[in-house]
Write a structure and sequence with these properties.
By secondary structure, the protein is mostly helical. It has 18 helices and no strands.
Length: 393
């Protein structure tokens, strides 16, 4: 916290989080409000995910070659523009599944350049022994806002519609972009070859690390099942089986409360076997899917969401620390991009599969299947020896 650049980075996360915490609720009910169901929401989420997959590797190469702060600026500015356009479409009643999908596509492209650049920011601002604390601190303001943000977003959507929440998200993206541009962080020294040479070198480094590719392979199933269940089916189950946007906002808030609690766990606890902690803790996200799928009362769903949030945040901080300590800074963008692509490559297929399966199965049955997939992938990942060997530097 004594480093001015780190404080600026922290402030940018806080500003952006105030809008992003409300955006998922607003987006889901913007689709529902124009008459869409699971199929329409699946199309929108797929349109957001596919461009990210297409451009992620390019974002990883650029993150290792050029200024990471400039990449974050351009990415946040692009995302803010897309959200502003979407808010305008929703406010004027011109939103359709196609129009919302176009805006989601632009946001997906922006995310492809934001994620690899953000992965390597902390290594430039603090020492290696402070990385876990830095990663946890960066998540404190965002998680704190997420506790009330989804709840506020649910009420805003209920009383005024989703346009206002989407518009605020656009404003926060632009403000965060300006703050991040002020970091002025240069890129690593280029390898001297072209982009394809950089990708080949990054792929070789990715394959050489068993802990990295095995966790990514497990994440392919875990992330797809989690997002298809929580992001796609969650709002629909809340709309039909609970009290709509308000109850889903409470679930989102409970999940964020767990994320915040997990952040403080990471500030106080320094586990030696970081990879083992990461794999086990991430499996907690199956709990709210199982609770929703089993038709439990809202109080049980909220409790499951809190535990899932704790586990996920511990896993995220542990994973970020492992990557930053085990991977050289000059390769961090590319290897992080390969990991991100691997974890997201199945998401569009999961959205489309769930959207198609919803015509034959109930949403609750599909949620139970998603929870079982997460459990099976976790058990498989625990059979990898390097999961137990990777330790804190």
């Amino acid at each position: 916290m004594r480093v001015p650049a780190f404080r600026r980075f922290l402030l940018a996360h806080l500003v952006s989080a105030t809008g992003s915490a409300m955006a998922p609720v607003a987006l889901a009910f913007a689709v529902i409000g124009q008459g869409g169901g699971a199929r329409s929401l699946g199309i929108v989420l797929t349109a957001n995910t596919v461009p990210t997959l297409v451009f992620l590797l390019m974002g990883g190469v650029l993150a290792d070659r050029m200024s990471r702060s400039r990449l974050l600026f351009m990415g946040n500015l692009g995302a803010g523009t897309a959200q502003a356009a979407l808010a305008l479409l929703v406010a004027t009643g011109a939103a359709s599944t196609f129009a919302i999908s176009v805006c989601a596509c632009v946001s997906g492209v922006a995310a492809a350049f934001i994620a690899p650049a953000a992965q390597g920011i902390a290594t430039r601002l603090v020492s290696r022994e402070q990385l876990q604390q830095a990663n946890a601190l960066v998540r404190v303001p965002g998680n704190a806002v997420k506790v009330v943000g989804p709840v506020v977003g649910g009420f805003v959507v209920s009383f005024t519609g989703p346009a206002w929440a989407l518009g605020w998200d656009a404003v926060t993206f632009v403000v965060a972009a300006l703050l991040l541009l002020g970091l002025r962080l240069a890129g690593s020294v280029p390898s001297g070859g072209g982009a394809l040479d950089d990708l080949r070198t990054g792929w070789a480094g990715f394959r050489a690390r068993n802990w990295l590719w095995s966790y990514t392979a497990a994440g392919t199933a875990v992330v797809a099942a989690w997002l298809a269940g929580y992001q796609l089916l969650g709002p629909l189950v809340a709309d039909r089986g609970y009290s709509g946007a308000r109850s889903w906002g409470l679930v989102q808030g409970a999940f964020a409360a767990g994320l915040l609690a997990g952040t403080f766990v990471c500030l106080l606890w320094k586990p030696r076997r970081l990879m083992l902690v990461c794999v086990v803790a991430s499996s907690a996200i199956m709990l709210p899917l199982a609770a929703l799928g089993a038709g439990l009362s809202l109080s049980w769903v909220l409790g499951a969401a809190v535990v899932a949030g704790i586990g996920l945040d511990v896993a995220i901080v542990a994973w970020s620390t492992v990557m930053q300590q085990q991977v050289p800074d000059a390769e961090l963008g590319r290897l992080g991009a390969f990991n991100a692509v691997g974890e997201r490559v199945a998401i569009p297929f999961a959205y489309l599969l769930v959207a198609g399966a919803s015509a034959y199965w109930t949403s609750r049955h599909i949620l139970l299947v998603c929870a079982a997939i997460i459990l099976a992938a976790t058990v498989a990942n625990l059979c990898v020896r390097d999961v137990y060997r990777i330790q804190r530097v």
